[in-house]
Amino acid sequence: MGEFEKAMVMASKLEKAAISQKNTQYVGNALLFQSEVLTRKELFDLSTLKLANAIEQFKIINDLPRQADALIAQSWIGHNQADYNAIKHSLLTSAKLAFEAHDKQRELDALTYLSVLAHKNKQEDDKYLYLTEAESKMKAYQFPSYHLAIIPFHYAIFTKNLEDKEPHLKQVIKLATLTPEFWAARTSRRQLMKYYISQNRLKDAQALMTGITLDSADNSYLKTLLADAQNDTDAFITHAEHTFEQAQLSGNLRLSLDIALLICGSDNTQVNYDFYSQYINEKGSDYWRRINEEKLTSLSL
User: Exposure of 235 by Cβ count < 10 A (0-12 exposed, 13-18 middle, 19+ buried)?
Assistant: First the structure.
């Protein structure tokens, strides 16, 4: 929710309680939580200190999986400091610790994340090297097919143009046919929905919802986008209001802001424009406003 001060207070209380009960595991957890908040606030030096202390706590009890988690968090600090060598060291060490702990999922998380951060830091060879390694390990570990969907999802990240992303995103959805709510499938559906609508490929957009039965904020959002593209006013209002309610109840601030902005962009008299515009003005973060600056300016919000 972006309520960093509240999160820090809770993490600090957890640390004090854990220290009083001499619970090393939870002292480490609390320090890791604090580091994550500090990183989000871009206080990297203090975050690094908290992380180092967290790792020391996890070492005391030989908790390799949580050491691996802390090193993944450390890699993001390296990314924000444009230090690719630090990123690579953190994530390879994380993968190694996870391997030693026989924690296959954490091992693969470290490798696929390294692939993404290699891409973000323009390390062309590494981004393919570690994604290929992750794919090989998934097959060797006989992971279910939906796990393999992560591979084309990352290839979609590597492409620049939306039309180049399409085949990769379609492959993600195919691999996750039996698990349509897998995070990579959900994200891929959203990207494809927006792409198809932008190309006026409404039949393809409609087909994305085939077999989707879960009543969730994400799925309601896609129905809202489709109804808007089809100029179905009644369906648009129904789905939009339902999406906003679901996003609010689930604590999905970004989605609730996205749907509020979409509602404000409609010219339907049934819409309570003042309510949603006030919500945007009260809840919109600086980051969200930056990525939606053009729309906000056009609506004078």
Answer: middle
